[in-house]
């Protein structure tokens, strides 16, 4: 698929009740914070998600790198359809497999690096681990070196770069596969899929919805991207949702 540099993407078309709406979370619905647990969840956005979830007959899902447990905590009292850990977790499936030993070793080593670089964060999600340096960019070389060394001992895992983060996660699971799976099932099947996301990992989601005749919406100005529509920031995404939820 041709993924181009498109500096000025048009806004998404008017909201339609026949959409299946897939939403990334961090950098899309929520502004980044210096650590993943410090994000703010806007109550007006929660209310809008609740309204739109009902209006779409349930076809509104979160598709995130966070675990389902974290998503349910952040979006409480809502319990939206969701794929967590970049598609490794689906609501209704059993828990993801136990992390392999080299991943647990990496977790310990990365925590030592984080102690030496206050502001860096090791996010242990069970079957995946994310090393964040947004809160202390000086930690990047050490975090990167650890992850690159560990990957050699983790067959079946891949290194996923993100925005000030490097994540180790099982190959095969990605947001596109998660979207494709949901589009095979009620209440998503037969609807026009729309994916809204900001990061490299969301390109898989964009490709999946475009392959189903859907709409890909990039948040921010990362390039290149397969998206053909854009919103400038998470604040703009929230306003878009709140406006769409008006009666
Ligand atoms: Mg994101």
UniProtKB/TrEMBL annotation:
One of its GO terms (molecular function) is trehalose-phosphatase activity. CDD domains: HAD_TPP (cd01627). SUPFAM superfamilies: HAD-like. Pathway: Glycan biosynthesis; trehalose biosynthesis. It catalyses: alpha,alpha-trehalose 6-phosphate + H2O = alpha,alpha-trehalose + phosphate. InterPro entries: HAD-like_sf (IPR036412), HAD-SF_hydro_IIB (IPR006379), HAD_sf (IPR023214), OTSB-like (IPR044651), Trehalose_PPase (IPR003337). Removes the phosphate from trehalose 6-phosphate to produce free trehalose. This is Trehalose 6-phosphate phosphatase. The lineage of its organism: Bacteria, Pseudomonadati, Pseudomonadota, Gammaproteobacteria, Lysobacterales.
